[in-house]
Amino acid sequence: MKKALVTGVTGQDGSYLAEFLLDKGYEVHGLIRRSSSYNQERLEDLLTEEEANALLNNSNFHLHYGDVTDALNVTRIISEIKPDEIYNLAAQSHVRVSFDMPGYTLDVDAKGTLNILEAVRILSLTEKTRVYQASTSELYGKVQEVPQKETTPFYPRSPYGVAKIYGFWITKNYRESYNMFAVNGILFNHESERRGETFVTRKITLAASRIAQGKQEKLFLGNLNSLRDWGYAKDYVECMWLILQHDKPEDFVIATGEMHTVREFVEFAFKHTGIHIEWQGDGIDEKGINKETGEVIVEVDPKFFRPAEVEQLLGDPTKSKTLLGWNPTKTSFEQLVQIMVEADMRKVENEEKVKVMFD
């Protein structure tokens, strides 16, 4: 039985990856930060009750207190587990927040990666342990070519992107310096019903669900013209695994090869709640109107603009498709939005039931 260590296991990608690996017959170890609340609470909030029970009651799933910023702790845990595979998904991954917390973002996203690689090296596990580093399309930032592929020059436009660029290059450096099987998966935007509620896609699907059920009046957003390559996180974790099964360590772009605006995401989200949006105005004066009622339900708020905007990201998944046999469009863009909206419609309905119960 192979052993895998997953950092960031309580996040969107980590939870899907843990389930995927368990289905593959792995013994899965997840790193979880200590807090004053019940340590499994984050997973229980993220998953449905059925999913949480299946994961947390699986005898091959184990949680360990730890933090990638604590080098001694990371080394001790890796020493105890001696994993065959490490998936480093731990990160401060909110781009806008990275402008407010650049130091913390650096500690987690850059130094955290180094701590894992160095632990594998000093424990003499370089022959046994394969390391996957979750890189990001934010490395490309002010894009130098369209679409972006493995050879496209980087130009990050946020503290998050800059911290992740260190994670990318230190992974490549350890691979070349110590002959480690250490690789980067350059993930473009990937979403799901488990996405954090502060991320724009989940913010949109939750707001659309609440507006449709009369529990919210408006949705306020930043740049509606931003173009992104959006895929389904559940599909993307399969590609992470495939990268570590490849016969040699290489870096891969993980993307769909399709690009959509934030405006399109909004339209599809409301469409799946039964509301059709019409747009009026331009720039910060642009508004989304409920076609049937004439109500303004979407507005632009400049406070959500980034200090340095990334206008478009479009990945080229050719290498992942041809060398790994991965299907990047297993779930279409519209199917992704529909999955998220249907989950949030149920969530909003259940919120009301809980409120009524306690009232």
Automatic annotation (TrEMBL):
Cofactor: NADP(+)
Superkingdom of the source species: Bacteria
Assigned EC number: 4.2.1.47
GO molecular function, one term: NADP+ binding
Record's keyword annotation contains Lyase: yes
Record GO biological process: 'de novo' GDP-L-fucose biosynthetic process
The keyword Transit peptide belongs to this UniProt entry's keyword annotation: no
Residue ranges constituting the NAD(P)-binding domain according to the UniProt record: 5-340
Keywords noted in UniProt: Lyase, NADP
PANTHER family recorded: GDP-MANNOSE 4,6 DEHYDRATASE, GDP-MANNOSE 4,6-DEHYDRATASE
Assigned protein family: Belongs to the NAD(P)-dependent epimerase/dehydratase family. GDP-mannose 4,6-dehydratase subfamily.
Protein name as it appears in the record: GDP-mannose 4,6-dehydratase
